[in-house]
């Protein structure tokens, strides 16, 4: 699509009447509630899925590479925000031994030929939390800040041509479009800085849709512990750092900068709007969850055409959901009436070193969602403010965070081994309840248990390498890029078949 065509489409989107859009979304939300009450969104069993984001790098240098659009189509991947991004999704499968095996097999079956095809163009797909090496001959600052004005519309030069991404820089809603982290500050004219980050997103479909609030409350209370296990983005590209001593930058690094990036880029720069990216509330009823999406401010109201899918009857409501950026969020959709589902989308986790690690999180999350409500675990009674504090502490300090947990006997604890010992045992029990053997359940839990036993996450692995180099007077940029090169090299041999534990 040419710049002028894209600008015209963005301008047309900005002409949509927001009040009319909201009225249509409200009417659809009412119909959605009726379908939920009628049982349309119920499932006969728990079902899981996974979204996996990657970015492209030069196979020789490790520098960021833009992904040719036609290449994405050839490998069957979807566009994400940046030209360097690619995304794949697994087919929903039952949460059982065959379903989880199918998740792993599908990821490998799609990624292996994709790596081969991109390799012909000198590009390697990387699973990571944040890229740190900008394209050859460019700085991260210029890559993220680059934009042009076309017909009065601001367009990011390194952003995919999806209209909704570009509208955010031209809408009335004042997105922050900035980075604000320890020793990092950057202001841009578009939301392009969000393209620094990549994630995995496990999904869990609720068997009985009206029970979503109960499952959701448990998901909020395990968010901190799971994020602490998964942290993988302690450093920014070096040229984004302010002028500060290298040891100070390393000492002040957060273990998971993805959380702060997403919030500062997309949340409003004024107090006139509630934060759109935030830790979500508890819900009393499934109707409350639907209303929370409906009442969320719509950045990009659009005239959404109705298609042939079942959930196109809720097309405007679903469009609102697309910018309902909570760290855990309820989802209601389905291509057909029989496929309609209510699910929880777990969004805090960054990209992981290997596919096995990604599926380990999917399995543990699914096992917890299966077991916690069934045993009526007292962690549901953890104060919401404490669950939120756990979440942000995990982003800052990973497994070294002080997080509060309530054990099965009702005891409050901050002991890391006690917290994770119980969390993994419950996840294992949940997987066994879904028909997995004890050994099979352990095989999914084991890669994450090893992280706790060693007190070593991917972020800590990265941080230790950079800290040790800086302690030896290696310049910060060289230390970060050396670490990133080792990360990509280790991943080459383990992405499809190994796990992060193999790196240790």
TrEMBL record:
InterPro entries: GCL_type2/YbdK_subfam (IPR050141), GCS2 (IPR006336), Gln_synth/guanido_kin_cat_dom (IPR014746), UCP012666 (IPR016602)
Entry-linked Gene3D superfamilies: 3.30.590.20
Pfam family membership, one: GCS2
GO function term, MF aspect, one: ligase activity, forming carbon-nitrogen bonds
Domain of life according to the entry: Archaea
Stretches that traverse the bilayer: none
Cross-referenced SUPFAM superfamilies: Glutamine synthetase/guanido kinase
Protein name per Swiss-Prot or TrEMBL: Gamma-glutamyl:cysteine ligase YbdK, ATP-grasp superfamily
């Amino acid at each position: 699509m040419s710049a002028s065509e894209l600008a015209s489409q963005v301008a047309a989107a900005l002409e949509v009447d927001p009040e009319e859009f909201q009225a249509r979304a409200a009417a659809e939300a009412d119909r959605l509630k009726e379908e939920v009450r009628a049982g349309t969104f119920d499932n006969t069993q728990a079902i899981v899925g996974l979204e996996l984001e990657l970015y492209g790098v030069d196979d020789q240098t490790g520098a960021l590479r833009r992904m040719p659009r036609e290449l994405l189509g050839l490998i069957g991947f979807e566009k994400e925000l940046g030209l360097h991004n690619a995304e794949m999704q697994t087919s929903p499968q039952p949460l059982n031994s065959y379903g989880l095996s199918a998740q792993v097999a599908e990821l490998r079956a799609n990624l292996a030929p994709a790596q081969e095809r991109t390799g012909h163009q000198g590009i390697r797909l990387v699973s990571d939390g944040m890229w740190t090496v900008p394209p050859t001959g460019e700085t991260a600052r210029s890559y993220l800040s680059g934009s042009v004005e076309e017909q009065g519309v601001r367009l990011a030069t390194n952003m995919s041509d999806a209209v909704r991404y570009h509208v955010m820089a031209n809408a009335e809603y004042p997105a922050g479009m900035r980075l604000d982290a320890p020793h990092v500050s950057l202001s841009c004219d578009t939301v392009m800085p969000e393209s620094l980050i990549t994630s995995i997103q496990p999904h869990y479909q609720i068997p009985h849709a009206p029970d979503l609030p109960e499952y959701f409350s448990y998901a909020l209370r395990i968010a901190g512990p799971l994020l602490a296990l998964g942290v993988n983005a302690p450093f920014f590209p070096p040229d984004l750092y302010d002028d500060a001593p290298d040891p100070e930058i390393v000492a002040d690094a957060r273990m998971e900068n993805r959380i702060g990036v997403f919030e500062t880029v997309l949340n409003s720069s004024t107090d006139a709007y509630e934060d759109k990216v935030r830790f979500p509330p508890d819900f009393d009823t499934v109707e409350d969850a639907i209303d929370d999406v409906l009442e969320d401010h719509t950045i990009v109201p659009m005239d959404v055409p109705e298609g042939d899918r079942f959930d196109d009857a809720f097309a405007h409501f679903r469009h609102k959901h697309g910018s309902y950026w909570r760290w855990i969020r309820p989802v209601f959709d389905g291509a057909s009436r029989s496929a309609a589902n209510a699910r929880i989308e777990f969004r805090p986790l960054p990209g992981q070193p290997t596919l096995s690690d990604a599926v380990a999180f999917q399995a543990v999350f699914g096992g917890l969602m299966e077991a916690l409500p069934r045993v009526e675990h007292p962690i549901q009674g953890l104060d919401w403010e404490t669950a939120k504090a756990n979440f942000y502490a995990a982003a800052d300090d990973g497994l070294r965070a002080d997080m509060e947990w309530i054990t099965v006997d009702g005891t409050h604890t901050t002991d890391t081994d006690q917290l994770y010992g119980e969390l993994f045992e419950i996840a294992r029990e949940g997987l066994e309840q879904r028909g997995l053997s004890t050994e099979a359940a352990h095989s999914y839990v084991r890669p994450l248990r090893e992280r706790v036993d060693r007190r070593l996450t991917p972020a800590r692995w990265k941080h230790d390498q950079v800290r040790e180099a800086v302690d030896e007077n290696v310049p910060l940029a060289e230390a970060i890029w050396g670490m990133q090169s080792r990360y990509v090299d280790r991943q080459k041999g383990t992405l499809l078949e190994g796990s992060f534990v193999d790196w240790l």
